[in-house]
Design goal:
Mean pLDDT: 86
Number of helices: 0
Largest sheet: 13 strands, parallel
Order of helices and strands: EEEEEEEEEEEEEEEEEEE
Helix content: under 10%
Strand content: over 45%
Number of strands: 19
Radius of gyration: 15 Å
Shape: globular
Distance between the termini: 40 Å
Structural class: mainly beta
């Protein structure tokens, strides 16, 4: 199954820019994805997913810039996500999730109060060393939100991450090294 999507430019897509489903070993690396009208990246039921070194800018739809759904061993790292109409990253029912070293800003452009990173019912999830800012639109609600299961959240720069607060998280292990 090994699929490599590398070094492409996707712009002004009318639905999904990059969509993969029911596969093994997907690498999305070094792509530029702009002006998505629905969702820039949608990955469903993928084992061993890596989304790294991408620039993902602007969506006008109601979904996240990156939807990660029912995946196993997903790593989202060293990406830039900017001006999402809703969330930057939404991960649901994804075990072994690592969201690390990303730059995220200006989410909630259309959906005021949206959260930059949402981790929902995902076992063994880590959100670490990301830089998350509400940006110039001043509409991003929270920097990080977890729903359902706890996540390890540490080392994130959340200075001015959201107008409502930095983290909305009743269950997770929060280390004091988030700033």
């Amino acid at each position: 199954d090994d699929v490599i999507i590398e070094g492409n430019r996707f712009s002004n897509q009318t639905d999904l820019s990059v969509q993969c489903e029911s596969s093994t070993k997907i690498l999305l690396d070094g792509n530029i994805i702009t002006d998505a009208t629905h969702c820039a990246i949608e990955m469903t039921s993928i084992t061993d997913l890596m989304i790294v070194n991408n620039l993902v800018v602007e969506s006008t739809g109601s979904d996240a810039l990156a939807d990660i759904l029912s995946c196993t061993n997903a790593k989202i790292s060293n990406n830039t996500f900017k001006r999402g109409s809703n969330k930057a990253i939404y991960a649901d029912d994804t075990s072994g999730l690592m969201i690390t070293d990303n730059y995220i800003s200006d989410c909630g452009v259309v959906t005021s109060g949206a959260t930059a990173v949402v981790v929902s019912y995902s076992l063994n999830a880590t959100v670490a060393n990301n830089r998350i800012f509400k940006g110039t639109t001043n509409r991003q609600g929270y920097g990080i939100q977890t729903i359902g299961y706890a996540a390890m959240i540490h080392g994130n720069n959340l200075t001015n991450a959201g107008v409502a607060g930095d983290i909305l998280d009743p269950n997770s292990s929060l280390k004091r090294d988030n700033i």
